[in-house]
Amino acid sequence: MLFALGPFNPAVASDPVAYKLMHASSINIDMLEQEEELVQQLKSYLASEKLDGIRAVWTGETLVTRQGNPIFAPPWFVEHLPKDTWLEGELWIERQQFQLLSSIVRDRHPNEKEWQRVKFMVFDSPSIKAPFQDRVLTLKTHIQTINQPYIQLLPQHDIASITELEQLLETIRSQGGEGVMLHRKDNLYHPGRNQNLIKVKPYQDDEAVVIGYVPGKGKYHGLMGAVWVITSDNRKFKIGSGFSDHDRQYPPPIGATVHYRFNGYTASGLPRFARFLRVRNSPDS
After folding, report:
1. pLDDT (tens digit, 9 = 90+) per residue, 196-234?
2. Which of 21, 78, 90, 172 is positioned for an S-S bond with 51, CB 3.0–4.6 A?
């Protein structure tokens, strides 16, 4: 098997839509408890569930993925969406249904019946120039005007203490959910990774796009040794652990989105001890 060795593919993450979106920093709940300043400021944040869906953006004209790829939704799904406001959210069915959702959304010929199971859970708008708590109020008005059951505003919760955050995270996890998003109430919408938007999970994880391979050595001679990946904010690094022998023989293809775990960051800001979890099949894959 031959491997592409180049660590950068300029075709990845090049669509203008990708650079207009805000991306969360990530922290696990144990590490968050050690961030005294953040813990003391939890009242300044709104909390929502981290949905395991497909991120989608309504541009006022079309529904696209976070990389700007078109989402082929039925006309009725988007006909009531506003023409003058961007909406950002997750296409979602319910917890632990990502693979079903992915098969529905990736179909270039939308199945009308299957799409009736999908909801657009709106959580922000890049085009509203106001603090987050005010953007939420404006979005609430938009969603009420749309008045369609499949277009919903993602619930936001006030958090008064680390105990309340832990309880919310445990409730979501016990019901099969992923984690919690913390968004500072006074945060303006700034594209790129933002320390005022924080993903809280029992562990740190993220996604990246495969852009190349490193050949295996020793017992992995002739197989894939590691993959080069690039994140949404253009950070490039290698993932070499977490792969089965089958994964190494048939590695994730160039352009695939992979889900990985990690333990904090290096001094240069790269994920430390990144470990492959799975290929995340989505319209951007």
Report:
1. 999 988 777 889 999 999 999 999 999 999 999 999 888
2. 90
Q: How far apart are CA 233 and CA 130, in angstroms?
A: 23
Q: Domain spans of the chain?
A: 20-201, 204-279
CATH of segment(s) 20-201: 3.30.470.30
Q: Read off the pLDDT of residues 16-41 as tens digits, 9 standing for 90 and up.
A: 555 588 888 888 887 787 888 888 89
C-alpha atoms less than 13 angstroms from C-alpha of 6 in its C-beta half-sphere: 7
pLDDT of residue 285: 54
Q: Residue 146's Cα: distance from chain center in Å?
A: 25
* Percentage of residues in the chain having pLDDT higher than 70: 92
CATH class of 204-279: mainly beta
- Could you tell me if 92 and 49 are in contact, meaning their C-beta atoms sit under 8 angstroms apart? no
Consecutive H or E run containing 93:
none
Contact, 56 vs 89, CB < 8 A? yes
Percent composition of the chain: helix, strand, coil (DSSP 3-state, to 5): 25, 30, 45
Instruction: Give the helix ranges, DSSP H, for the chain.
Output: 29-32, 36-40, 75-78, 98-105, 112-115, 132-146, 162-174, 245-249
HSE-CB for 23 with a 13 A CA cutoff = 17
